[in-house]
Sequence to fold (247 residues):
Amino acid sequence: MHSALGNKILSIDIGGSHIKATILNAYGELQIGFETVDTPILPGPKKLIAAIRDIVHRFPEYDKLSIGFPGYVKEGVVYTAPSLAPKKWGGINLRQMLCDEFDCPVAVVNDADMQGLGIISGVGFEMLITLGTGLGSAIFLNGALMPHLELSQHPIEDNIIYDKYIGKKALEKEGEVKWNMRLQKVLLVLKTVFNYDHLYIGGGNSRKINIPLDNNITLVSNEDGIKGGAKLWQANREIQLQLTGQK
Fold:
């Protein structure tokens, strides 16, 4: 159901394990508590949209949907989904499918990109990584979202990509001590390669961090990140048209 005021944003964060949603106002302030459903196992588009429908129907009023999706997204089209079902998401126009399903404006971006928008200060060169099923990443310059890089798929060692090196399965297999040692190596690589002014670390496994962090590194919560769903609609007109696929 769409409200009369036109400024209620249903922000949805799709993770490898859970899908979380809440209602935001235009300023990113939470208007209601969070709702969560399990992410289906190895979902294709139909399964995922059914899960999204389940959580959307728990909210009586909204005007726009903001979707953070764990993969490479360009103008609402999903090209990869490594933590969901890689073979089922090549060239899927998820934005259009959701527009048709819910009959409202929809913005779909990478989940780390959306989370970063809700967290960054907007000053200088900032970076966000998320530690969950895999590694999410996003980069920003003076508050502007830069083109998305699938850093998770880049090798950090011979034939070992970041996802497998410090993802959920690596944490479970290697244990927290070795996982933290690996994370320390990853942070050094990011510091050297990106020379960011500030790095934010989110995701459920960020709670497992027990290594010293530089002064320009901040731990953040997914709850803060979901506020980025409002920032998608605060961008300038040209960017908004790209996000929604309008002409």
Observations:
- Confidence is low (pLDDT under 50) at residues 236-241.
- The two ends are 25 Å apart (CA to CA).
